[in-house]
């Protein structure tokens, strides 16, 4: 019998450091043939674009497959299964498959898909790894307030997604340790451990740096013990993302990136924006800039030179609670 191809599912809330982990794993692939399936919330793929342009040895364009149109957990049958089948049927199938889910996806329906007969005989989920933002967790961003708990209709969509991701995990990377002190780190660790299945390890990381073997070398066969991975959505016949939405804002080439960052910062403070990411074109700069906002924190760096003939234009994707005032946010960002 041929060995099953191991697949690692990387889950974690918006902006926790999943793509940072994926990049680290691809860059340190130890000669293995890796394939990556990356899924984003919304229909604009920023993560896949950044990865396919970074020229990682041993990981070609064909090995990175982007599913940027809704959450994997809701599009498993239509989108994920055909992609998996095509990977398995390649003349030279990958040695290992990484699956980065969107920050709003529930991992359990995805793991369930590995029961599909064509896939079950060829691939196993050797681990579900959850990446967690230590700063946001310590600050209680995913925890209901006592006032919310007291409401009879209490539900906190952020907390539900976060909890579902942790409940399905075989391992947790408690990331962004550089942004918290020891007390906050302990607080975050305690909050997480109370939600994990027994025996699940929590590893503190900075920029998702961890020995790759620790992450890809798990041997969990997660599809075989789904019953031990409770989900708040087990009883629901359908899970939709009605609580969240995303849209893109096109930006012309800009002269003053600092002013744009200030405008983004104030839009985040004013509206229910959870995540913003994308690219900027800065006048007289030969390279494309990346902008990444998680909560109120905004990072910016140059990513790669503009290609000959490529339009110097920017675009950011905004993700937030349902009912975002798209026109007001776009106007505030464009200035
Ligand atoms: N300070 C700090 N920043 C980090 C760390 N890990 C990741 N980041 C930054 O956090 C931002 C989001 O990281 P990503 O890896 O894109 O997060 P993600 O989970 O893939 O985000 P989504 O796919 O949008 O859910 C980026 O600006 C990263 O550079 C860390 O350990 N410390």
UniProtKB/TrEMBL annotation:
GO terms for biological process: cobalamin biosynthetic process. It comes from the Bacteria. One of its GO terms (cellular component) is cytoplasm. Pfam families: cobW (PF02492), CobW_C (PF07683). Keywords: Chaperone, Hydrolase, Nucleotide-binding. Residues 244-333 form the CobW C-terminal domain. GO terms for molecular function: hydrolase activity; nucleotide binding. It catalyses: GTP + H2O = GDP + phosphate + H(+). Residues 6-203 form the CobW/HypB/UreG nucleotide-binding domain. Zinc chaperone that directly transfers zinc cofactor to target proteins, thereby activating them. Zinc is transferred from the CXCC motif in the GTPase domain to the zinc binding site in target proteins in a process requiring GTP hydrolysis. Belongs to the SIMIBI class G3E GTPase family. ZNG1 subfamily. This is Putative cobalamin synthesis protein cobW. It comes from Magnetospirillum molischianum DSM 120.
């Amino acid at each position: 019998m041929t060995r099953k191809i191991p697949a690692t599912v990387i889950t974690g809330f918006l902006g926790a450091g999943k793509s940072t982990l994926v990049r680290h794993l691809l860059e340190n692939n130890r000669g293995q043939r890796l394939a990556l399936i990356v899924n984003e919330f919304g229909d604009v793929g920023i993560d896949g674009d950044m990865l396919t342009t970074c020229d990682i040895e041993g990981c070609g364009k064909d090995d990175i497959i982007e599913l940027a149109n809704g959450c994997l957990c809701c599009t498993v049958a239509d989108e994920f299964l055909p992609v998996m089948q095509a990977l398995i049927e390649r003349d030279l199938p990958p040695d290992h498959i990484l699956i980065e889910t969107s920050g709003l996806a529930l991992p359990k329906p995805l793991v369930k898909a590995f029961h599909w007969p064509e896939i079950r005989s060829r691939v196993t989920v050797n681990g579900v790894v959850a990446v967690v933002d230590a700063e946001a967790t310590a600050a209680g961003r995913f925890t209901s307030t006592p006032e919310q708990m007291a409401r009879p209709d209490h539900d906190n969509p952020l907390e539900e997604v976060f909890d579902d991701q942790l409940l399905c995990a075989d391992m947790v990377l408690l990331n962004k340790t550089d942004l918290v002190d020891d007390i906050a780190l302990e607080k975050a660790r305690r909050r997480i451990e109370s939600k994990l299945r027994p025996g699940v390890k929590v590893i503190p990381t900075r920029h998702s740096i961890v020995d790759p073997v620790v992450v890809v070398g798990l041997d969990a066969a997660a599809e075989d013990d789904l019953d031990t991975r409770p989900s708040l959505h087990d009883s629901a016949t359908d899970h939709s993302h009605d609580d969240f939405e995303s849209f893109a804002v096109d930006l012309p080439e800009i002269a003053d990136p600092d002013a744009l960052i200030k405008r983004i910062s104030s839009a985040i403070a004013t509206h229910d924006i959870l995540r913003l990411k994308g690219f900027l074109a800065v006048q007289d700069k030969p390279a494309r800039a990346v902008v990444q906002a998680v909560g109120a924190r905004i990072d910016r760096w140059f990513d790669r030179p503009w290609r000959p003939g490529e339009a110097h234009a920017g675009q950011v994707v905004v993700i937030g609670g349902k009912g975002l005032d798209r026109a007001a946010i776009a106007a505030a960002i464009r200035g």
